[in-house]
Amino acid sequence: MLFDAALAYARHGIPVLPVHTPAAGGSCSCGRAGCERPGKHPRLRHGLTEASVDPRRIEMWWARWPQANVGLRTGVVMDVADVDSPGGWHGLRHLLGGELPRGPQVRTGGGGWHFWFSPIGYGNRVRLLPGVDWRGSGGYVIAPPSRHANGTTYYWAIRPGDPAAVPAALRDLVAGPDPPSATPEAGRDAIVHPGRYAAVALEAETARVANAPVGTRNDTLNRAAFALGRLVGAGLLDAATVTGELTAAARWAGLGRAETTRTIRSGLNAGRLRPLETTRRRVA
């Protein structure tokens, strides 16, 4: 079944790679004690770079490792929003105006979701939103019918087809600061479309505060104020606007007036001292 699935993905042009298999008791076929990613890291010596659509190579791999989980390279046929918590699901849904994408959807073994989108050329983004990572160029995901370390199986909630187009709000969020390793060109902008990025960041941070669970609300507010304070320091957002939006979100979440005012002021001031650079310095 795993081999057949790997061949089917390859026939659709998606580079495939064999991934380690979960073993008894939550361990991993890699044999390392305390493996942090059981059943989720490549078996191949050179990892992702060896991913292939060649059926002969895939047959050779699964003849050697018939129980290998199936990994799919992203950024070629599809990019993937990897949602691993209820908060991430709600955050993505909020960002997309209350709707979720209608393209292919995978239920992961850990209870999360993989939403497939048409590739847009950006690399991976960790914590795009709380509980949401982006798998793009240079990334991979585990695909059905692979097994999770808890014994459950990845499966299709909406069967494969044409990946969904990336909505503008999500695209703008993905097109945020690139990690240095992904932007080797000297002088390349650190933020693509800084005005739109700042607007999306403001919306995402205020949503995070408004929906913060009891016990995390003040910390969430402080983190949001710091993150937006960096954009204020860079001249991308107005301090009064940020204060007003965060205050409204905090009151919605149930925080008191004095606590809200104190936390926002502290977070904003700290963020302003570390403004986000909108351009990368040129390398001599």
From TrEMBL:
Coiled coil: none annotated. InterPro entries: DNA_primase/pol_bifunc_N. Residues 6-170 form the DNA primase/polymerase bifunctional N-terminal domain. SMART domains: Prim-Pol. Pfam families: Prim-Pol (PF09250). This is DNA primase/polymerase bifunctional N-terminal domain-containing protein. It comes from Actinoplanes digitatis.
